């Protein structure tokens, strides 16, 4: 039986500003990537999101991003590998404190937004991120764009890795994500998103250990429901990456 993890970016509210329908989406996913305060999230949001995930048996991962609240971490920044190492270590540590305080154990780390996309192509940046993850806990799983430099760096560092594909994003011929600034970058139809997920998981041309749904999308809950249902119909087991 084919197996795949279904993950969602969560905990991206900030102060009085609420984003996403995290509690409802948690019923359909197996892993949650929780923002750590740099691109979104705050201490109270982090705590609540961790507690909700643990209550529903969803595996928890840190979702470190660039220090850019205004741009939601989706704007490139000229950070050095050392800076990337430091900010990744800092954010993992922050979320890990909430996870431990709630009696849980962190499963993975998945960089966010521009940091994720930059690392997908930059070997030095990727290695810095992977080394930060390893320094916190060698048992953590590093999530990265399927076939990317980030996944390769994780493997070279000695981490378990998860090749990630996206339900709601289109791809370029070289396997990278279509930039959000370009037309057609996002998939808005849940049926099309579900069909893309099944194709990516089944055809094997792109490694697909885990599938991402963006929690800040306007139709994130509908996407989660449609994809989970379609995977079940296709007899594909949905299970957290750390349980495979």
TrEMBL record:
CDD domains: LamB_YcsF_like. Pfam families: LamB_YcsF (PF03746). SUPFAM superfamilies: Glycoside hydrolase/deacetylase. It catalyses: 5-oxo-L-proline + ATP + 2 H2O = L-glutamate + ADP + phosphate + H(+). One of its GO terms (molecular function) is 5-oxoprolinase (ATP-hydrolyzing) activity. Keywords: ATP-binding, Hydrolase, Nucleotide-binding. It is an enzyme of class 3 (hydrolase). One of its GO terms (biological process) is carbohydrate metabolic process. Gene3D superfamilies: Glycoside hydrolase/deacetylase. InterPro entries: Glyco_hydro/deAcase_b/a-brl (IPR011330), LamB/YcsF/PxpA-like (IPR005501). It comes from the Bacteria. Transmembrane segments: none annotated. Its EC number is 3.5.2.9. Catalyzes the cleavage of 5-oxoproline to form L-glutamate coupled to the hydrolysis of ATP to ADP and inorganic phosphate. Forms a complex composed of PxpA, PxpB and PxpC. Belongs to the LamB/PxpA family. PANTHER family: 5-OXOPROLINASE SUBUNIT A, UNCHARACTERIZED PROTEIN YBGL-RELATED. This is 5-oxoprolinase subunit A.
